[in-house]
Amino acid sequence: MKTELISRERLNTVSLSSDEIARYSRQLILPELALDGQRRLKAARVLCLGAGGLGSPAALYLAASGVGTLGLVDADRVDLSNLHRQILHGSSDVGRSKLESARTRIREANPHVEVELHEVRFSSANAASIVGEYDIVIDGSDNFPTRYLSNDVCVFAQKPNVYGSVFRFEGQASLFAPHLGAPCYRCLFPRPPGPGMAPSCAEAGVLGVVPGVIGLIQALETIKLITGIGDPLLGRLLHFDAERTSFRQFTLRRDPQCALCGEQPTITELIDYEQFCTTEEPLAASSDIPSITPRELKEKQQRGFAIALLDVREPYEHEIARIDGSRLIPLGEIFDRVQEIPREGDVVVYCKVGTRSAHAISELHGLGFTNLYNLVGGIDAWTDEIDPSLVKY
User: Fold this and answer.
1) Which of 276, 295, 311 is where one domain is finished?
2) DSSP readout, 229-252?
3) Fewer Cβ neighbours under 10 Å: the N or C end of the chain?
């Protein structure tokens, strides 16, 4: 499918230096690409939302391939737990701005690429002005508010949205672009999952190479769109299973009832995406779930209160780090081992960040338990505030 993302006027202003011709020579000899395709790459302006697991491989390979301008949106700093998958960053970058780290690495990969940094939280207030500067958007975000926002702003701006997501050993990618005849993200997912139904990578984990595979597919689809090579993922969803090393493909169709790109759209402007994606109060913050902070728990322990600790994470998580004296009963085994949970005295339930433990307490309330407290922030918060010697994973 041939798409004209780059205007002829802009293309006519682009030329390649002898250094660039040598650098891209193995691409230039492909008849499907040739000099015209390489000039299109140099003329292109691509925006990456996120410089993390997906944005790292996508940005690096787009830079290496000769995309002329890369915009990066990210407001985070490099954390040690990022490094197994976020290959834009290295050990010496821990604590550094992700965007500064990314710019250094991209310039090393290809000094001919212009890198534009947007060190802000992508929001309804700035999305339209940022996206308006680019030809195509790569969504490397890891949360639902940003996915819906990037989808909606791209639909309004008529910019292709190269989608990717990962979970544990799986990933998926597609290309959303109603103006090119393809569906949008809302055609596939009209509403976000309920709170706690889709755990983040911080809770569920992800094999480091999986975002690498999906990020490279996003880069590939971007290059195909810019140059007109091949058949892009318009109207198709590609699913990758790393455990079986298998790919499956699903056909997607535009939903005529879609609230955004359907025949009678009801969404005509950017909305409050945080509110849209949290229509129900998260259990971890619910007033119906009694809670205790790490500092409150520590104070009670120091004052001699008898408090039982219940860890509802998985056994491999318990092996990595645990609060002294805690009993492990994984969330999936709660009902089978309910007799092991004390019904008298205070019991503090914890997981990694407080979501699974809140769900455990909610379920146990239905069995008559009234002595359970959720550890706010989970073992992550306990490590940060009370015991930094614990390994943070």
Assistant:
1) 276
2) -S---BTEEEEEETTTTEEEEEE-
3) N
Structure tokens at 302: 């120091």
What's the whole-model pTM score?
A: 0.76
The verdict on whether 351 is a catalytic residue reads yes
| Single residue among 241, 276, 311 that ends a domain in this structure | 276
Q: pLDDT truncated to tens, each residue of the chain (393 aa)?
A: 556 788 889 999 999 999 999 999 999 999 999 999 999 999 999 999 999 999 999 999 999 999 999 999 999 999 999 999 999 999 999 999 999 999 999 999 999 999 999 999 999 999 999 999 999 999 999 899 999 999 999 999 999 999 999 988 999 999 999 999 999 999 988 888 755 555 666 667 899 999 999 999 999 999 999 999 999 999 999 999 999 999 999 999 899 999 999 999 999 999 989 888 865 444 555 557 899 999 999 999 999 999 999 999 988 889 889 999 999 999 989 999 999 999 999 999 999 989 889 989 988 998 999 999 999 999 999 999 999 999 887
Identity of the amino acid at 151: N
CATH code for the domain in which residue 106 is found: 3.40.50.720
CA distance 102 to 130: 18
Q: CATH code at 317?
A: 3.40.250.10
